[in-house]
Amino acid sequence: MKKQIIMLPGDGIGKEIMDGAKQILQTIAQEYNHTFSFHEYAIGGSAIDQYGVPLPDETVEACQNADAVLLGAVGGPKWDSVPVHLRPEQGLLKIRKQLGLFANLRPIKIYPSLLHASPLREEVVSGSDILIIRELTGGLYFGTPSERRNNGNSVVDTLSYERYEMERIIEKAFKTAQTRRKHLTSVDKANVLESSRMWREIVIEKARDYPDVTVEHLLVDAAAMKLITDPNQFDTVVTENLFGDILSDEASVITGSLGMLPSASVRSDGLGLYEPIHGSAPDIAGKGIANPLGMILSAAFMLRNSFGLEEEANEIERAVDEALTAGFHTPDLNVKDGMKVTTKEMTEAILENLSTRSISDSICHMYV
Ligand code: IPM
Ligand code: MG
After folding, report:
1. 21, 78: one domain
2. Residues 182 and 245 in one domain
């Protein structure tokens, strides 16, 4: 299989973790006879430094023509004083919007070897397997620019959604729930917000087309509480942009670290942008200790979701699982025993597990 992958490392630890993902993908390509070509483009603060804007046109164009996009992270204190519309984060919001990536899938799965690394009790988090589906191109993040203002005494952000924007994400959620445990939790604030009332109405309407999926409506405050008191009651969760942003960071504590979580931002034709859900972590950038797993698992997500390479994706996830089980962990993971390693060493441990497979496979072939 031949694929063209665009890499947008961005800022802070984004660059450090992207290197590892690339190495893993190159090894997979070799093992399975694929040709992956990689092209790097600028986004976020590093694009501001190079081009004066957080999202250069050539970056968007390259992504439009690619088979998939991998993104590290954007932002950092260096750009705190730039005007709001030029902040690094605008690069990320604009690329999501311009590519039409309306559905953000954030799986939260706990690795058995990390059960004790979660600040929550083992018996609470054990077995957790949640998929948060976050609407990504509407809501407060994209309020009408002419209505957005701050005159020093009053400030306005607007939350607006078109009906079709809600319909498409809710449909995506029902379809995805059908491929999982068929339980969909819709999160809103329908006791207060007009937008949430329309959201809930659409969920009720669509539910008639998916009788095999059980639906539950939760207010966002209750959902926030239940996510950490009883994560096992959740399967597929669907919610609007800002609620999804907040709930997914919260849910990451189940897995032991925000650094573990991958994500996919997709549109209907399958084009996807894959990125860890964490930020650019300026406090640890340059130290070589960032957890590369969110990025590496995002690469696996890309193989499965955009290229249909299930076996290759499983292979990366198995190698990650083995490295964790062997005790390797970056300092963000509060693991009792085991070996504290750097970003590079963690990546190497996974690469080694990938090549163990090719060695044991070739031994198997010799005996067949
Ligand atoms: C995320 C991040 C972004 C968001 C920021 C960096 C703009 O927090 O991907 O969750 O809020 O969407
Ligand atoms: Mg976030």
Report:
1. yes
2. yes
SS3 294: helix
H helices within the chain, ranges in order?
A: 13-32, 45-51, 57-64, 88-98, 122-125, 163-178, 194-207, 220-229, 241-255, 293-305, 310-325, 343-367
**How many Å apart are CA 110 and CA 256, to the nearest integer?**
8
Range of the domain at 188: 119-255
Q: Catalytic: 212? A: no
- pLDDT value at position 300? 98
Q: Looking at 94, 189, 206, 235, which residue is catalytic? A: 189
Q: Burial letters for 207-230: b for 16+ Cβ neighbours within 10 Å, e otherwise?
A: beebeebebebbebeebbeebbee
Q: Are residues 63 and 93 in the same domain?
A: yes
> Could you tell me which of 11, 16, 36 has the C-alpha nearest to residue 295?
16
Domain count, the chain: 2
- Per-residue pLDDT, averaged over 236-253, amounts to 97
Residue 142: nearest ligand to its CA?
Answer: 1
CATH of the domain at 163: 3.40.718.10
* Segment 110-122, tens digit of pLDDT: 999 999 999 999 9
Instruction: Determine which one of 57, 221, 230, 361 is catalytic.
Output: 221
**Whether 283 is catalytic:** no
Among residues 255, 280, 297, the one where a domain terminates is: 255
Q: Are residues 123 and 251 in the same domain?
A: yes
pLDDT tens-digit series, residues 214-224: 999 999 999 99
Q: Is 57 a catalytic residue?
A: no
Q: DSSP 3-state assignment of 104?
A: strand
